[in-house]
Each structure stands twice: as C-alpha cells, then as structure tokens.
C-alpha cells in the first residue's frame, strides 16, 4: 500500500512529494488550529462571545467547527482513511455521525427543557 | 478504484483470506472496535452536554479551574498546560504514523525508534494527566457549600482576584481534632476535617471587610456573579460546610457534576491512553525481536496505530468540550 497514498490535501490545493512530507504538513496544520483555539479561548473576543447563533455563542461554534476540521485530518491522513475504499470510509464515518447527531439532538433538547423547568417552575434549587 | 467488488476468482468466498472493502480482517475489526468505542465516548460527552445545558447558568468556567502550569506556582496560566498536553499527544500520533510509514518500507530500525518515541509521548501524556488530576483534587482557594448544595467562592473586592479561605479565615482555638483509627479501638477513621471550620471561615469573613462572595450564577457577560458586601453577609448565613478541592461528591469549583464528568471522561480517556501505551510496548518489543520482519509485513503496527490515532482523535473532542467551550 506504500505506493497507494494520496498525497493531496485541501482538495488538491497542496500536494506533497512523499507520505512523510504529508505527515509533517498535516502536523503543522493541526498545531496551527490548536494554537488558534487556545488563543481564542484565552482572549475570548467580545464580538464572538456576544453573538449568538442557534442559541450558542459564535465562539463555541468556531471551536466545534475547528475541532471537526482537526478530527477530519487526523482520520483522513493519520488513520489513512483517505487511502481506503470509499465504501469503507463512508461506513466508518457516517454511522457514528448519524447516531451521535441523533443522541445529541435528543439529549440537548431534553436538557434545555429541564433547564426551563428549573428556571420558571416552582422548584427552588439555588439556595 | 473506489469500488467494493473483490476480484480474484481463484479465492473461495467462504474459505477466508478475502479482503472485503480492500481491508484485511484485522484492520476491519479494529475499525469496528473504534466505531463502537467512538460511540461510547460520544455517549459520555453527550451526557456531559446534557448536564451542562441543564445547569446552563451555573456551570463552572473551565479556564478559571485549570490555571496551573508545573513549576509556575501562583502564575495564572489558563489552559496552557492542557494545550501542551494536546500537542504532546498529536506529536506522538505523528511519530506513530511515521512508524507505520517506515513499516511499509520495511525499515526495521526506523520503526523501532518511531515506536519508542510514540511510547514516550504517551507516557508523558498520562503523567501530565495524573498531575492535572492531582491539582484538581487538591484545589486551590477553597469554598463554602450552602444548604442547597451550591458553592460560594470568595473574591478580594480591592483587587478583584479570588481569595483563598486560608488568607482570611480566623483561627478559633478548638479542641476538635480529626479522629484517627490509632486513637480508638472501636471507631474507624472519620472523614478528613477541612483546614478551617465553617465557624472560622465565617468569622474571618465578617472581620475582613474587603472579602465578598462569588456565586455560581453566570451573569450576562458569561462571568460569575460577585455579590456586594451586604449581600455577601446575608448569603454566608446559608453556608453549612467548607469544601476544599474536589472529589466525586462535592468540589470547590461549582456544580458537583462538573468534577464527576471530569473524572469520568478524562479518566476513561486516560485509561485508553494507558492501554495504548501498553499495546504499543508489546508491538515495540515485537518489532525489536524481528517478528514482523519475519512475517514480511508490518501490518500490526498499522492496526495499533489506528487505535493510537483514535485516542488522539477523542482527546481533540474532550479538549474542546471540556476546556474550550
């Protein structure tokens, strides 16, 4: 399989000469994302914490999206999913994504409901 | 090239040796395991999200909890250490993938050294996590707990910084000492007494006019609410006990569930890293004694590599949801 590595990332924008080179390139990219995340986490720009999208701070959306980007490159380049057959890749990726989205949707909606009960209801808990 | 059809008519379909989806049996099974393990972790993180949404207005702020860096005592360093840990784990993932790459080229020495570096990286991560746990369990400022189980922390209103209960509590001479098993024959150990009793903290609070209370409630800017001196004097009456550090029942940082999830999720992840290091060790020794050289391929390194990258992958999510968001 050594010769079967796909050496392009960013949809062909960056093409590496060898697999080793690609690994270091992906490391640089992942490190950059982590640095950006930590910098945002410490500075917390007011414009990002003050803006809400779908009930969540824009900053948190940025964190989640950057995390998914990191996860993508770890799975695609470190775990060689890029080199696997597309059917295997889809089976591995979409099964958990579907189940997790389903679970998260149910749990968060339910949690928000309980939160409102605590807030508006007759249960005293903050004393 | 992206097809699922297995060619090779010389093979008997039921005779084994087929490679459905172009992956060997071992690799496919590792992927099955990783998918199911990913769902386990997702379950934990979703439960964390549930509790966090439920207590949206009172959840602790992570970068006020994890502010320590080894060797820099008293320096406020939010998240630097955990960022370092993240980097260590990504780095060990890189050496792992380099080991896999060297394995494809049948370079035994390179595989050996890259595996060794991976093991060192993993051990560093587990050690860092142990340190993180120890710091978390020990706590730093101390707090009071109210009848309703809420946490009251203290702030110096002159500087706006957190005040430790040790800084302002008065010492009331008291003959109440912790009972130890060696001092009695029919009692067992009692739970550790806090460094200061509730009376000492309360009295010290009344004497130090600059100390005010910080509640769990988040204000509109997303920061913890700081009460005025008058409100604080009123609020402290509801306190029933002193809390120092963290355990599974209560913690000085705020919501009880925060510490529970911290121990549970990072603990479960740390256990994965630990087992990963152990498995890497086994593979490392196999590489050294030339097992895979004789076998003619280094696919075992690749399979273990998948597990190791998965551990890194999970940490990326734990890092986001526990420390950043």
Overall description:
The complex is a heterodimer of chains A (127) and B (325). Chain A is mainly α and 127 residues long. Chain A folds into two domains: 1-83; 85-127. Chain A has four helices and four strands, in the order E-E-H-H-E-E-H-H. In chain A, the strands form two sheets. Chain A has a two-stranded antiparallel ribbon with strand order 1-2. Chain A has a two-stranded antiparallel ribbon with strand order 3-4. In chain A, strand 3 and strand 4 form a beta hairpin. In chain A, helix 1 packs antiparallel against helix 3. Chain A starts with 7 loop residues before the first strand and ends in a 7-residue tail after the last helix. With 325 residues, chain B is of the alpha+beta class. Chain B has ten helices and five strands, in the order H-H-H-H-E-E-H-H-E-E-H-E-H-H-H. Chain B has a five-stranded antiparallel sheet with strand order 4-3-2-1-5, with helices on one face. In chain B, helix 3 runs antiparallel to helix 4, helix 3 packs antiparallel against helix 10 and helix 4 runs antiparallel to helix 8. The radius of gyration of chain B is 26 Å and the shape is elongated. The two termini of chain B are 41 Å apart. At the A-B interface, helix 1, helix 3 and helix 4 of A face helix 1, helix 3 and helix 10 of B.
In the CATH hierarchy, the architecture of the largest domain in chain B is Up-down Bundle
**Beta strands of chain B, count:** 5
Total of helices of chain A: 4
Indicate the mean pLDDT of chain B. 88
Q: Tell me the distance between the termini of chain B.
A: 41 Å
Share in helix of chain A: 55-70%
Strand content of chain B: 5-15%
Coarse structural class of chain B: alpha+beta
Uncertain stretches of chain B: none
Number of helices of chain B: 10
Notable characteristics:
heterodimer, A: 127 residues, mainly alpha, two-stranded antiparallel sheet, 4 strands, elongated, B: 10 helices, 5 strands, 54% helix
